[in-house]
Structures are given as C-alpha cells and as structure tokens.
Amino acid sequence: MGQNFASREGLLADRLLGIAEFGHAYWFFGNLYEVIVKIPHRVAAAEASRELPRSPFGAGSPGRYYAPMAPFIAPAAIAALAAGWNRIDSRPWLIAAAAGSTSGAAATVYLLRNINPKLFFSPQPLSEMRRKPLLQRWYRVHAFRLAASAVALAAIHQARIIRLKGRG
C-alpha cells in the first residue's frame, strides 16, 4: 500500500509539474513578446473606441490571452512541491519552482492592482508626462516577472529530469 501511494503521489507531482511547465513557458514567452514589441507602449497610448475599448479584456489587451491560464500556474507549482515533497533529490528544484512561480504571481498582482488600471484602462490615455513613469515602473516589475518565470521554468525542467531519472 505504501509503494502504491508513493507512485500515485509521484504521478500527481509529475502531472502538476507538466501543467506548471506549460504554464510558465506560455507566460514567459508571452511576456517576452510583450517587451520586445512594446505592447505596453501601444496599449497605454491607444485612444478608446467602440471597437477597441480600454479594458482588461478589450481587443488588443494581453489579458485576454493570459486569463485562461493564469489561475493554474502558481497553484500547480505549489501543489507539485507538496506532492513531490518526499523525493529529496528533486525537492530543492520544486522549492525553487514554487518560489519563482509565487514571486511572479505576486508581481503580477501588484501590476494588476496598482499600475495597469491607471496606465491601460483609464477612459482616455494619460499624458506622456504621467504615462512615462508608470511605463518605467511597469517594465521594471515586468523584468522581475520574466526572471521569476525563467527561474520557475528552469527549476521545473530540472525537477522533471531528476524525477524521470529516478524511475529508470
């Protein structure tokens, strides 16, 4: 019975790591694309229209692409840590993955609550003088999110490799 429980626990951890890995890859490369093509500059400067409202899920808003996956990323990494806790060889990587995932999620919450409403969703675009410092802060926090997601993604990958080697 103990071995069967351990194998179910390991299978659960592996599946959760798969979800977290997919989610972080989705998050990392989507966020990297936003920086490269300067999506925040475009969205922050866009005038509202009936076709392009200034809202979190309006046309052109990245929120539409992240919302379906976002609620699962950090919880999957944390749950994988809990499910895989008994495997000492992968535990440090699971801790790093959960820490990176949670840190990135916390930075996202900060942006969603404190920066994005003023910068992207005001009825009209802010003046350049008011927009510039908010964009600078957005990019700084976004760089932290990218780093946190990269750490989580690398740690998840390493944990999965260790767990796969342990089966053979």
Summarize this structure briefly.
This protein is an all-alpha fold.
Overview of the molecule:
The protein is mainly α. It has one domain (2-167). It contains six helices and no strands. It has helices spanning 2-36, 39-45, 63-66, 70-83, 91-120, 128-167. Helix 1 runs antiparallel to helix 6, helix 4 (70-83) runs antiparallel to helix 5 and helix 5 (91-120) packs antiparallel against helix 6 (128-167). The longest helix has 40 residues, at 128-167. The chain is elongated.
The main β sheet shows up as:
none
**Gyration radius over CA:** 19 Å
**What's the total count of β strands?**
0
Uncertain spans: none
Question: Can you give the helix content as a percent range?
Answer: over 70%
Order of helices and strands: HHHHHH
Distance between the termini: 21 Å
**How many discrete domains?**
1
Class based on secondary structure composition and strand pairing:
mainly alpha
Portion of residues in beta strands equals under 5%
Calculate the mean pLDDT score and round it: 86
Shape: elongated
Number of helices: 6
